[in-house]
Amino acid sequence: MQLRAVLGDITRADVDVVVNAANPGLLGGGGVDGAIYAAGGPSILAECRGVTARLPGGRLPRGQAVATTAGRLPARWVVHTAGPVWSASRDLSGVLRSCYAESLRVADGLGARTVAFPAISAGVYGWPLDDAARQAVAGVRSVQAEHVQEVRFVLFGEEALTAFEAALSG
Ligand code: AR6
């Protein structure tokens, strides 16, 4: 599995699976989530409603992942995962690594060859970028994928790119 980091808008990524930095309700929001729903069209939200209706309490636990189709995005599927909100007093890094590992497992189960990830939890959820990048790389590397050949971190801004390049070379 090849891992690389690039600058770009994840909604435009030419990959089989785009991972969404969602929230447990899966009903949309800002950041990556808002951009995916806006660019992909209403079918993604409609599928998410069906998914949450089958989940206990109507919520996706943080660190887990579920797939929908991708509407009008270039990707075939969106894998939705809810990251942890940054906490200075509690170590939730295992939950963040799990977002990457579980999303990759779901993507691999669909037969995806290419997967694009954003910097989960590093926006609205406030996770410091350098550590978010380290957890991302560790989470992806913890999985032995059968089908996925390329994991692409698609990032907003030079600061994020630098953080992910450092994590990838570490
Ligand atoms: N392509 C690539 N990266 C992006 C894009 C994009 N189109 N848009 C933002 N980023 P965030 P979170 C970067 O806030 O922290 C939503 O309301 C952004 O600069 O999208 O996990 C959800 O519904 C940052 O580096 O995700 C949840 O409630 C990174 O992607 C909550 O926000 C992640 O930022 C999730 O917060």
Automatic annotation (TrEMBL):
<dbReference type="InterPro" id="IPR043472">
    <property type="entry name" value="Macro_dom-like"/>
</dbReference>
<protein>
    <submittedName>
        <fullName>O-acetyl-ADP-ribose deacetylase (Regulator of RNase III), contains Macro domain</fullName>
    </submittedName>
</protein>
<dbReference type="InterPro" id="IPR002589">
    <property type="entry name" value="Macro_dom"/>
</dbReference>
<dbReference type="Pfam" id="PF01661">
    <property type="entry name" value="Macro"/>
</dbReference>
<feature type="domain" description="Macro">
    <location>
        <begin position="1"/>
        <end position="170"/>
    </location>
</feature>
